[in-house]
Design a protein that fits this description.
The chain has helices spanning 44-52, 91-103, 106-111, 113-133, 149-161, 179-201, 217-223, 264-275, 289-301; strands spanning 6-15, 18-28, 33-37, 59-64, 67-68, 76-79, 167-171, 210-213, 226-231, 242-248, 286-287. By secondary structure, the chain is of the alpha/beta class. It has a domain at 85-164. Strand 10 (242-248), helix 8 and strand 11 form a beta-alpha-beta unit. The two termini are 34 Å apart. The relative contact order is 0.16. Bound molecules: adenosine-5'-diphosphate and magnesium ion. Residues 44-45 line the site of magnesium ion.
Length: 304
């Protein structure tokens, strides 16, 4: 097992002659919730598609838990903004659908019906567990047309996590939701993070490793433990967007007040470093996650 849930090594991507991403390096620990922000068109979705395995990069390598990604696979899950569930399946069946595809077959249904039924039973029971995790235990039998947008996004999240992926990618997952629902789903992510912390304390592998694209800077800092900014506004910007910002950010628990004023300085810095076209800087100026991490570790190690 690798110490990283995700490793992106020297990834670059071009569409024809247009270079979108330049030499992206990224390592994510299991249990991290990493937010990705950047100007529209800078290549966020391109990066996610490369990690998902549907659109391999022009050059570079991607590993999940140490294993190279060559095509879509169980190690990486994704939730889109308008994820359409299967209309003809209820919540429970929607969530277990991936397991059904992956672990049962038509032939098994014909020739090993007992095995099939017993697997089905265990899939549906797992599905109910995951629906509970996302706060939908009472909606297992509901069909998509009976659910609100927020409920459907929760089902999509459960659908991704039931496959026990090493990392789940969220591409503007709450963009289509109204404010109250958006806040509810943010709280769900904060709860996931608390479960990760508990798992680490107990020596278990944390379940929820997330890379989330969002255009809301407050949301990024509020739900994530680390923020990454992707942008072309750096001295070699003609070669493509790079990670120009990578820093830890404050951790909120679901009980904390939603007080965004606490991190207004970091938000301003992020806006300037990633979104300001006039401000062209060395691409490494705000990439300090790893040095800050070792400083934190040293501080803990110092005798009191
Ligand atoms: N299939 C494609 N063919 C050509 N250009 C593309 C393709 N997909 C994306 N692009 C271009 O690559 C750039 C990055 O796109 P994208 O990753 O979708 O940006 P973001 O998600 O950050 O808004 C944009 O300029 C877009 O027009
Ligand atoms: Mg996009």
């Amino acid at each position: 097992m690798s110490q990283y849930a995700l490793e992106v090594k020297s990834l670059s991507h071009s569409f024809g002659n247009y270079r979108v991403l330049d030499n992206i390096q990224l390592q994510v620990y299991p249990g991290q919730i990493v937010a990705v922000v950047g100007p529209s068109g800078c290549g966020k979705s391109t990066l996610l598609k490369a990690i998902l395995g549907t659109n391999p990069p022009t050059s570079g390598e991607i590993l999940t838990d140490g294993i190279p990604v060559r095509s879509p696979n169980r190690n990486v899950g994704i939730v889109y903004q308008n994820y359409s569930l299967y209309d003809f399946l209820n919540a429970e069946q929607n969530v277990s659908f991936g397991l059904k595809l992956d672990e049962t077959s038509f032939l098994m249904r014909l020739f090993a019906i007992r095995k099939y039924l017993s697997l089905r039973k265990s899939h549906l029971s797992k599905s109910r567990d995951f629906l509970k995790q996302v706060g939908l235990e009472s909606a297992c039998g509901k069909y998509p047309h009976e659910m609100s947008g927020g409920m459907k996004q929760r089902v999509a999240v459960a659908q991704a996590f039931i496959m026990r992926p090493k990392i789940v990618l969220l591409d503007e997952p709450f963009g289509a939701l109204d404010e109250a629902m958006r806040e509810d789903l943010q709280l769900m992510l904060l709860r996931f993070y608390q479960e990760n912390l508990l798992a680490k304390q107990e020596g278990r592998r944390p379940e929820y490793t997330i890379l989330m694209v969002t255009h809301e800077l407050n949301e990024a800092i509020y739900v994530a433990d680390r923020v990454i900014g992707l942008s072309r506004f750096h001295t070699q910007g003609d070669q493509g967007a790079a990670i120009v910002y990578d820093k830890p950010c404050p951790i909120f628990s679901p009980e904390d007040p939603r007080d965004f004023s606490k991190f207004s300085e970091q938000r301003d810095e992020l806006r300037k470093a990633v979104f300001d076209e006039e401000y062209i800087k060395d691409r490494n100026k705000y990439v300090t996650f790893w040095s800050e991490l070792s400083e934190l570790a040293n501080r803990v190690a110092e005798p009191r």
